[in-house]
Amino acid sequence: MKITAVGGYKAVGRNMTGVSLDKKTIVIDNGIRLDTLQIYDDDTDMIRKCSKEELIRLNIIPDADRLKNVVAQVLSHGHLDHIGALPMNKPEVPIVSTPYTVEMARAEYKQGNFYAIEYGQDIELSPNLTVELVEVTHSIPYSSIVVLHTAEGDVVHTGDFRFDDHSQVARTNYRRLRELGKGNVKVMIVESTRVRTEGKTPSEDVVRIMLKDVLEFIDKGLIVTTTFSTHIERIQSIIDQAEKIGRIPVILGRSLSKQSKLAQRFGLLDLPQGTNVFSRANAIAKALDEVEDSREDYLLIVTGHQGEQESILSRMVNGRFQFRFKHNDSVVFCARTIPGPLNAASKYILETKLKSFGVRIFDNVHVSGHAAREDHRKMLELIKPEHIIPCHGNMDMRSSYAELAEEEGYRINKNLHILTNGADIEI
Ligand SMILES: [Zn+2]
Q: How far does residue 84's CA lie from ligand 1's centre (Å)?
């Protein structure tokens, strides 16, 4: 079989991998690179203005045309760095994922030929080639480990993961992973974003305790929280804690509103009766007018944890609504600033403006959604692949994964392979 590294094998983002055998290719993931996009444009208008060739040249989307004889597109989960390039790359083949991820992908790319499958339900992509999705914990519901069962053995693509045995929205199917490890896994393609961090990534339970600690501590002013709109478990924890401290939760912002509605439909998010969720600018402005008069009664959940210019938090601080922050209001960042000079600059500007109003800042009420070094070792022990290809990381991250694999007995260029974007390898 041939594995082609299309995107995500040079820097974090625009993930895509091709698996080819018998003159048929399966594509795994189809993502965009968000930080590069931001350099050129603060909103995503650029995606509509640029040609596909320009987006590839600017390293925003993967060069899917490199892959020939594609018979199916499989998606590991719904983060934009895994599904966001679907509208530009327009796969004309069946697009396969869990029902939840399919709904997210359909919202990005309406014309797709989507097939939703449940965990553990094998479907045939071509003769002698079936796909199976195995449940794993990450920071979005319905993340999958993608398994291709082929005549030459199994291909396991871990997608993004962490091991969180206290998650309230997902479970890792250890039993199935162990079974796969006892079989014939020819190659494991594995994310490497956080492999340089020692130990284990903490559970989302840790964030629940951090949130309780911080939100019970704040005893005056308006509380504004901000987090990833796809992190449904985190949003639920914020809502639950708002109720416990007797504040009315209000969700503001287009992506938060879209993702919470989807999660509610799938029974993953339980909003208290009458919780207001607003996405339109005039409805948000009206809600903020109400909040302004009785600010100690409310807890807002808004977009803008990275200081994105068009987010609700930036618009609130920049006076784009009637609303004004006041001394003793608090902003709780339930996220970490994504590494990179651009994000750091946006966050710095946002925090400086907030402080100028006398707003108190609580940063980094957060744990990562990605596996740390010992999580990776555990995955390796479970899957026991013959060959390993680290993906989803810059050279540092993928080399660091290679070091870990060497500790476990793998040898570089023998059964451990470092590829860069555009390269392929016959296994
Ligand atoms: Zn992800």
A: 12
